[in-house]
């Protein structure tokens, strides 16, 4: 389901010196071509045909969890209520769904805030608009995990926690010089979280390999995109902006305590979160690095 191999990997660190000037412009155009190859047409109004075809493949993935889950508890937790006694499987569903909800909220708010910029026909804004639409596919991929469970419908009820509201407000209202550094830190934190979830997923559902495979493939698909999003923000920031990314990523990772307590309960404790300090491009799975665009 992943795209053909990317031939545009020129670095091995999220925090190395960024390309500038004409080199940055060339990388940006190369990334736009990569997006066209990966997604097909880049028409955000009518969808990306290759991406839509892959979504059909994901929707057809087999696997149905054989045990009953407590849908009432899942819905209460999704709505922000404190719930105890959830199984690991139920927490896994919630972890995916809450990451989805947070992404959807962030995309909606920042897209509205930057709508005027997205009307401009300059490469940086054309690409940014495409990336916002890619995120809508991520929300579908993450929420799609519910297809493997009886009667779990989580389309409504979620409310953004305060920590997420603050982060998205900072993004939406930040001046141009701060927008991409903040977003770069958030993207690195997101890739760290998705990579951790991928590893944790491999220990879940030991008797349900189809469900485990579905979860893994969804995360890999998203990670391939998100590495490209990091590359885009690296192209868009100065080297000063890159230096801000790691402490910002650490703060966003710490905020998972309130944004997604199910991830914490699944094992993303303080020690695990501290690994963000050592996390970098080479920590990604080989499959992700083979297919992602990165500079």
Could you please describe the fold and organization of this structure?
By secondary structure, this protein is mainly α. It has helices spanning 21-39, 49-59, 71-78, 88-113, 115-118, 123-143, 162-173, 176-201, 209-236, 239-254, 256-259, 261-265, 270-274, 286-291. α7 runs antiparallel to α8. The model has no long low-confidence stretch (mean pLDDT 90).
Distance between the ends: 23 Å
- Spatial shape: globular
Helix vs. strand class: mainly alpha
What does the main sheet amount to? none
**Helix segment tally:** 14
Which radius of gyration do the C-alpha atoms yield? 18 Å
Overall residue-averaged pLDDT value: 90
Helical coverage, percent range: 55-70%
In terms of DSSP E residues, the strand content is under 5%
Number of strands: 0
Q: Unreliable segments (pLDDT under 50, ≥5 consecutive)?
A: none
Descriptive labels:
295 residues; mainly alpha; single chain; globular; 65% helix
SSE inventory with pairings:
Blueprint: H1 21-39, H2 49-59, H3 71-78, H4 88-113, H5 115-118, H6 123-143, H7 162-173, H8 176-201, H9 209-236, H10 239-254, H11 256-259, H12 261-265, H13 270-274, H14 286-291
Helix pairs in contact: 1-6, 1-9, 4-6, 4-7, 6-9, 7-8, 8-9, 8-10
In short, what is this structure?
The chain is mostly helical and 295 residues long.
């Amino acid at each position: 389901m992943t795209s053909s191999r990317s031939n545009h990997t020129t670095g091995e660190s999220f925090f190395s010196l960024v390309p500038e000037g004409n080199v940055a412009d060339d990388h940006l155009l190369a990334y736009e071509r990569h997006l066209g190859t990966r997604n097909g047409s880049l028409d955000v109004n009518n969808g990306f045909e290759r991406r839509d075809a892959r979504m059909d493949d994901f929707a057809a993935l087999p696997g149905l969890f054989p045990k009953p889950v407590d849908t009432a508890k899942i819905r209460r937790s999704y709505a922000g209520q404190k719930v105890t006694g959830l199984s690991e499987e139920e927490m896994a569903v919630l972890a995916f769904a809450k990451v989805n909800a947070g992404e959807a909220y962030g995309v909606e708010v920042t897209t509205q805030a930057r709508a005027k910029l997205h009307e401009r026909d300059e490469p940086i804004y054309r690409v940014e608009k495409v990336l916002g639409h890619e995120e809508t596919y991520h929300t579908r991929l993450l929420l799609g995990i519910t297809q493997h469970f009886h009667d779990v419908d989580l389309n409504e009820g979620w409310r953004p926690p305060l920590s997420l509201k603050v982060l998205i407000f900072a993004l939406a209202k930040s001046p141009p010089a701060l927008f991409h550094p903040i977003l770069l830190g958030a993207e690195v934190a997101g890739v760290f979280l998705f990579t951790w979830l991928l590893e944790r997923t491999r220990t879940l559902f030991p008797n349900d390999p189809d469900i485990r495979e579905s979860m893994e493939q969804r995360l890999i698909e998203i990670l391939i995109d998100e590495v490209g999003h990091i590359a885009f923000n690296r192209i868009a920031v100065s080297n000063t902006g890159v230096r801000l990314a790691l402490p910002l990523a650490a703060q966003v990772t710490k905020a998972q305590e309130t944004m997604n307590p199910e991830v914490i309960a699944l094992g993303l404790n303080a020690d695990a979160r501290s690994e963000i300090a050592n996390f970098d491009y080479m920590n990604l799975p080989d499959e992700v690095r083979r297919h992602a665009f990165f500079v």
